[in-house]
Amino acid sequence: MSSLFPALTNSPGEHIALRFGDRSLSYARLAAAAGAVAERVRGEGRVAVWATPALETAVAVVGTLLAGVAAVPLNPKSGEKELGHILTDSAPTLVLAAPGDELPDSLRDLERVDVDVPATGALPEEQTDAAAPALIVYTSGTTGPPKGAVIPRRAIAATLDALADAWQWTGEDVLVHGLPLFHVHGLVLGILGPLRRGGSVRHLGRFSTEGVARELNGGATMLFGVPTMYHRIAEDLADNPSLAKGLTGARLLVSGSAALPVHDHERIASATGRRVIERYGMTETLMNTSIRADGEARPGTVGVPLPGVEVRLVEDDGTPIASYDGESVGEIQVRGPNLFTEYLNRTDATAAAFTTDGWFRTGDMAVRDPDGYVRIVGRKATDLIKSGGYKIGAGEIENALLEHPGVREAAVTGEPDPDLGERIVAWIVPTDPQTPPGVEELADHVARRLAPHKRPRVVHHLDSLPRNDMGKIMKRALGGHA
Length: 482
Fold this sequence. Notes:
single chain; 28% helix; GMP Synthetase, Chain A, domain 3; Rossmann fold; nine-stranded mixed beta sheet; alpha/beta; 2 domains; four-stranded parallel beta sheet; globular
């Protein structure tokens, strides 16, 4: 396998690779700083990265990958319970962080290495084993704690090269985004993608429509976002001519991580003449399908399979749907070099995720048009909530709620939200019906244990939860998407 980042040696040294606010690194300076990280972590086991939206995070991940070591991105907003599980499960030998970052107590026993920018180090001879682990990214399932998806180097290269084909992505492109750097969308697509192409990325630090307008009017050619961001853009367009001008001049507007409502598609298109394109991926698969830059931007669909990726729909019994008519619903299964290797320390979950002939069971339900376009219609399971671009498992929120002394029983569902896509709804049987815990109290409780985006935004108090004869909560009787 060739280098993941040929541009570190092939691009003009002073060409800007990364910019975060008023801080930037040229390719030459990135190579030196990442080389210094690679020298430090070479020979380590797994390396945790405190993944703040900063230059240091990008340098840490690139340097770790150059050294042939697997990086474990950590969400800085994770609660102690979630973070503790990830650290115990992945067992990193050290943590990389920006100087001055305050790390939580759960990391105090782990050796800390500060990432210096700028720094000077030599580029190592890069790991070329395509099957070697590159990232361990934790993803929420429908029950239990997050699972660590082991993403090999070949998957990163395959996905980014397939997207380059689909999106006509080159070293001339300048990408702007404000996505977090602890998951696939923001880190793999949003940081490693431009670096593999030899282009530039401008990270907003924190998403704002003002930042998007500034960067798109200042030379950026591409925008990556999640539906919540595009909803805010659509809301702001009428009163923000600078934003409309920036979007009109962009080469590519991409939305992912959840479905973008058709209403927002149309508002953006009518104000700018530009269509947002959607793609479909998961932590375990990276990217599977996309609208092509030279194809039809069909709202409500996630396009066609990417080069090298096989996609099929199957019936409940696993039988492939023979022909695609735009109406027959089946579960999406995918196969290709973009797939993860395994769930770390979870041979049972890994085996259950794949068919005997190597297809990954996504759990997403879809229909497919005769021309190959895929439209996702929902989850096979009922316990995955897509809110603000995040995929959130109801089970871990329920477990957190049950740790509150005022909660006797708990169920979690999602319901439509015009900004977030879905909002998290908690259904609570209180310990004391006379003094039930309120929404703010429970939201703070969950946010401290898990992460702020997993907090419930609506709380209903019930005398009892509906259950079947086996004692399983019947969520469909509660409302929401479940």
